[in-house]
Amino acid sequence: MTSISEAFQQNYPSVSGSAPIIRLLTPADRERWDAFVMGSTKATFFHRAGWQQVIEQAFGHRTWFYYAESGGEIVGVLPLAEVKSRLFGHSLSSLPFCVYGGVATASPAARRALEEAAQALAVKLNVDHLEYRNIAAQHPDWPSKNLYVTFRKEILAQEEENMLAIPKKQRAMVRKGIKAGLASQLEDDIDGFFAAYSHSVHRLGTPVFSRKYFRLLKEVFGKDCELMTVRHQGRVVTGLMSFYFRDEVLPYYGGGTDEARAVAGNDFMYWELMRRACERGLKTFDFGRSKAGTGAFDFKKNWGFAPTPLHYEYQLHRARAVPDHNPLNPKYKFFIETWRRLPLGLANAIGPYIVRSLG
Question: What are the residue boundaries of the BioF2-like acetyltransferase domain, all occurrences included (predicted)?
Fold first, then answer.
């Protein structure tokens, strides 16, 4: 029986070195996959090979990490994962649990070959839809979701420059945290971070990721995945997991306890990350994805960051409409209010079984 990867190699043979061959990532390919990602202006942290291991081991989802090869060199990548749920449908996405994704290549031929591979796989799997989480629009004829924006801003060369670049009201919140005697600390284990993060998402009424997921992220990405906590009088009040990619820092998972509000713990936490990034000579602070009309959106704008729309594009297969699985959907209001009333321990125990299906 011909495998999927063999079929695509037959469909896209190398002709005079011009047409790319489509292959599936193997452990032996990870180093050169990541070398391509690090050197490609089209790629992001979420195109790294390690996401295959994380998604498979943390959530049990099947993955297809395709790459295009020409002349023995990788010239494009497309990481994909399948999420199949009775509650939330059946999707093939690039990439679930990540804010960015899609095809990363500068080659039109590689893009075409990778796209055709993904679309053929979507048909084979009989999914509801194929999703690309693009930074820039790629398929104007596909249905899209105009829900998310990203916030990115230059990190200035001097610490005081970055402080003064923060709008006055937000800067006052940062200084409130400094006056309260807050102190940041880098961590090797997830316990302090997880306590603050899980408390925060429970308060918002959303399911928490598993401890295993965060441990895997730290294990797989090593020094490029950093944990930081903020303490007040010795107690952890906020926790943050950040990713590092080239000259960028991406605060990705964070949260705080009720005590954090009184001492501006979250404001201080993000300032500390920015300050530390400035010390390291990094150039870009990627504040990540938010939904328009939410508190997180307003919080990031208050820092002086301007929103840039993200282009989440969908090729519909069995589905008739773009999925709408997000807390702003009115049909989830009852679920959110019920979740908030659950004991924290119970929410942390059952949350990972729900969130794995959301992607």
Answer: 169-301
Q: Output Rg (C-alpha) for the chain, integer angstroms.
A: 21
Q: What fold is seen in the domain 4-148+311-328?
A: Aminopeptidase (3.40.630)
* Cα 21 to Cα 156: distance, rounded to the nearest angstrom: 42
Residue 358 preceded by cis peptide, ω within 30: no
The whole-angstrom separation of Cα 82 and Cα 298 is: 32
Encode 218-250 in three state secondary structure: HHHHHHHEEEEEEEECCEEEEEEEEEEECCEEE
C-beta separation of 167 from 302 below 8 A: yes
Do the beta carbons of residue 273 and residue 113 sit within 8 Å? no
Tokens of 235: 């107690």
For 113, the 3-state DSSP assignment is: helix
Q: What is the pLDDT of residues 193-209, one digit of tens each?
A: 999 999 998 888 888 89
**CATH 3.40.630.30 holds for 156-282+340-355:** yes
